[in-house]
Amino acid sequence: MRVVSLLPSATEMVCALGLERDLVGVSHECDWPPQVVGRTVLTSAKIRPSWSSQAIDRDVRLVLRDALAVYDIDVDALERVAPDVIVTQDLCDVCAVSFDDVCKAVERIARPQTRIVNLHPKRLADVWDDVRRVGEALGREREAAEVVRDIETRIDALRLRASRLATRPHVLTIEWIDPVMIGGTWMPELVEIAGGRALVTSAGDHAPTLSREQLAQLDPAPEVVLVKPCGFPLERTLVEAGVLRELLTAMPWPAVRDARVYVADGNAYFNRPGPRLVESAEILAACIHPAAFPELVARHAGAFQPFPVQET
Fold first, then answer.
1. Which residues contact 169 (CB under 8 A, 6 or more apart)?
2. Beta strands at 170-176 and 180-182: parallel, antiparallel or unpaired
3. Is the separation of the CB atoms in 174 and 232 below 8 Å?
4. Cβ contact 40:80 at 8 Å
5. Distance between CA atoms of residues 309 and 106, nearest Å
6. Per the omega criterion (within 30 degrees of 0), is the bond before 252 cis?
7. Does the reported pTM lie above 0.85?
8. Residue 93 confidence (pLDDT)
């Protein structure tokens, strides 16, 4: 079977099912597991690179305002790889190529037999169902059930440990720096699993944008803050340390006062609705309750770090 994945989380699912060798095409953002690097790349971004999250947000909004796609599909390359199955999504046109564009591309290459598997996760249960859906489409139902069972076992064990702790701090997760967007969809569930109480959003919500005035007036105020911008590795987020520091110094939050602000890899974790959401929950637990989860602090040391709001 010849499989194409047009989003990173789906690529991780396909490989988790043991079908890495069947993967003939990927998106330009697919980078895990490392073995997928070098496969035929089928998408590209129209937004020019920028060091500024504000500029990226502005350019994306301009493209969407004009009813244009944020990403292009290389139709010629798609025709060459001749996929039997394409895995894509219609949850967010900013996160990956649009579903409509995928359908049009399949029509153009005249492969009506190509099956399109469309993912639309909003909560953790949706993500696990997507693993099963991909497994069904690729003839790996048993392997998909095993992947989900392993994930749920680890999630349940983490939730049980966290439930025995004496405190559940209020946690704010930041999805974008400028403007500030708050983590929605499955993020409140991850916070709860890790032993915290999510602020602003509930499970399944879209990520809202808050002004500085709204952030300063949060009640209850956050006791822990995790900054993990969508698509940004840890090093990329730290490029905007000055912007982030200027924002946070104005916030009358216990998290700022008590040095409980963290930055994390928002590209590999948190924002990819795939198997590594279990690692994302563990990173959250390491941030929220570091004394209770010292092994998770050590295990994920390269994926997150404290952020000093006050420069030393």
1. 195, 196, 197, 223, 224, 260, 288
2. antiparallel
3. no
4. yes
5. 49
6. no
7. yes
8. 63
- Reference 128, options 145, 158, 149, 148; nearest CA is 148
Alpha helices, H only, the chain: 8-16, 53-65, 75-81, 99-108, 124-137, 141-163, 187-193, 212-216, 234-239, 241-248, 254-257, 277-288, 294-299
**Amino acid in position 62:** L
Tokens 């073995």, residue located: 35
Question: Tokens 């029509």 sit at which residue?
Answer: 107
Cα–Cα distance measured from residue 246 to residue 291, given in angstroms and rounded to the nearest whole number: 29
Amino acid letter, residue 275: P
What type of residue sits at position 76?
Answer: D
CATH numbers and ranges of domains, the chain: 3-146 (3.40.50.1980), 166-306 (3.40.50.1980)
The predicted pLDDT at position 94 comes to 67
CB 171, CB 197: distance < 8 Å: yes
Side-chain-facing half-sphere of 237: CA atoms under 13 Å? 27
Are 191 and 224 spatial neighbours (Cβ–Cβ below 8 Å)? Answer: no
Distance between CA atoms of residues 224 and 261, nearest Å: 6
Torsion sign over Cα 302, 303, 307, 311: positive
DSSP label at residue 61: H
What does the block give as tokens for 53? 């999250």
Reading the chain (312 residues) residue by residue, the pLDDT tens digits are: 999 999 999 999 999 999 999 999 999 999 999 999 999 999 998 777 777 888 888 877 777 665 456 788 999 999 999 999 999 988 766 667 888 889 899 999 888 889 999 999 999 999 999 999 999 999 999 999 999 999 999 999 999 999 999 999 999 999 999 999 999 999 999 999 999 999 999 999 999 999 999 999 999 999 999 999 999 999 999 999 999 999 999 999 999 999 999 999 999 999 999 999 999 999 999 999 999 999 999 999 999 999 998 765
Angle 154-14-7 (CA atoms, 0-180°, nearest 5)? Answer: 100
